[in-house]
Design brief:
binds shikimate-3-phosphate, 29% helix, 424 residues, 25% strand, alpha/beta
Length: 424
């Protein structure tokens, strides 16, 4: 896919629904009694993987128009007839493992080549501590995961990583435990599981970086309106900031404080972003974002801020390459175990375009302000790398060519159409 440079960008855009919330709406809807109806569900490949796993577990899910999940309650899942396929989705594997650990049946959960390389020890360890039978095939700590459902015990888990997938996995297993289960993380990760499970009727409490759940709640089906995904909005925020004479209005973006690090980092970089029409949608803060071209300056991104923008680091790195000064990203070793090794894929592709960037053990250093030029970008099948470099192309001499561009369908199938609609 050839992305041409843009002289200016103008217009309004509605971005697709939040991926994290879409996954959870299916999972929690399946475990609730009665129907859950989901508007603005993200029909990306990852969320479709979650739907197909729950269909295999005996849940009826209608996908025409609004998504309807016919929940069967906490104990209504049925043994699947074949391997559950999570595709490329880490959220599906890790959260579903927590649910499957407490079922009265065994099954196998796997996914594509990338998923089979991603670390699962982070969920195997706490689930085993709860009494679960879970192991990676062939003595590895990776998928395929063989899960033998078992009676679970409540634990307090001190997680070594700030990961919402780990936290959510343990809390979901906690629904099937014999007492309270809590998770403390080094810094707060996204809290959609806590918010949403509470709205379905679970007893979940949060204090600082600890979340606690009580077992065996009666979950009740809900109506959910999924906010726009700030992780997808990030590409349009960056595009409008970088392209000269740009003004873009992005509607209905979820701005949960555990997810809005991109806005805080952009502000520190001197970005012109105005929040309009702030309101709540299904218990999540939402607003419109008016973004105008800005002269960006470098910043440092580190510490407790990282989980609030972990998926936005590829596009923040692109912003940093065009900003004046040296941007340092640290405490972000988690980037190495995402859909690709993002430290490597970001730095390699930035260098191909002429940027001055170097990888570090836990992040990268980018000396911004050098003009970028045409290159072929290999996203390594990572949707966020493809989209971040499509944004880089907008201001690069000669644009850029994204190889295997269709990987964006993981989280944003209509990305290129929406981006091109703003060219003026
Ligand atoms: C997600 C959590 C994050 C994020 C991923 C979605 C979630 O992963 O990178 O895209 O929905 O819980 P980690 O929990 O591994 O940091």
């Amino acid at each position: 896919m050839m992305i041409k440079p843009a002289r200016s960008l103008n217009g309004e855009i509605h971005i697709p629904g939040d991926k994290s919330i879409s996954h959870r709406s299916v999972m929690f809807g399946a475990l609730a009694e009665g129907m859950t109806e989901v508007a603005h569900f993200l029909l990306g490949a990852d969320c479709l993987s979650t739907i197909s796993c729950f269909q295999k577990l005996g849940i009826e899910i209608q996908t025409d128009g609004c998504i309807r999940i016919h929940g069967k309650g906490l104990h209504g899942l049925r043994p699947p007839a074949s391997v559950l396929d999570a595709g490329n989705s880490g959220t599906t594997v890790r959260l579903l493992s927590g649910i499957l650990a407490g079922q009265p049946f065994s099954c196998t959960l796997s996914g594509d080549a990338s998923i089979q390389k991603r670390p699962m020890k982070r969920i195997i360890t706490p689930l085993r501590e709860m009494g679960a039978g879970i192991a990676g095939a062939n003595e590895t700590d990776c998928a395929p995961l063989l899960i033998n459902g078992a009676p679970l015990h409540g634990i307090h888990y001190q997680s070594p990583v700030a990961s919402a997938q780990v936290k959510s996995c343990v809390l979901l297993a906690g629904l099937y435990a014999d007492g309270p289960t809590s998770v403390t993380e080094p810094s707060l990760s996204r809290n959609h599981t806590e918010r949403m499970l509470a709205s379905f009727g679970a007893d979940v409490t949060s204090s600082h970086t600890t979340a606690t759940i009580l077992p065996d709640p009666a979950l009740v089906g809900q109506k959910i309106d999924v906010p726009g995904d700030i992780s997808s909005a990030a590409y349009f925020i960056a595009a409008a900031l970088l392209v000269p004479n740009a003004e873009v209005l992005i509607h209905d973006v979820g701005v949960n404080p555990t997810r809005d690090g991109i806005l805080r980092a952009a502000k520190a970089m001197n970005a012109d972003i105005t929040r309009l029409n702030e309101h709540q949608v299904s218990g999540e803060p939402v607003c419109d974002l008016l973004v105008r071209s800005s002269s960006l300056s470098a910043t440092t991104i580190e510490g407790g801020m990282i989980p609030a923008l972990i998926d936005e680091i590829p596009v923040l790195a692109v912003m940093a390459a065009y900003a004046q000064g040296t941007t340092v990203i640290r405490d972000a070793a988690e980037l190495k175990v995402k859909e690709s090794n993002r430290i490597e894929t970001i730095v390699t592709n930035l260098k191909r375009m002429g940027a001055d960037a170097e990888a570090t053990e836990d992040g990268m250093v980018i000396h911004g302000g050098k003009p970028l030029h045409y290159a072929q970008i290999d996203p390594h099948a990572d949707h966020r790398i493809a989209m971040a470099f499509a944004v880089a192309a907008l201001c690069a001499q000669g644009g850029a060519e994204i190889l295997n561009p269709e990987c964006v369908s993981i989280s944003y199938p209509e990305f290129y159409r929406d981006l091109i609609s703003l060219y003026s």
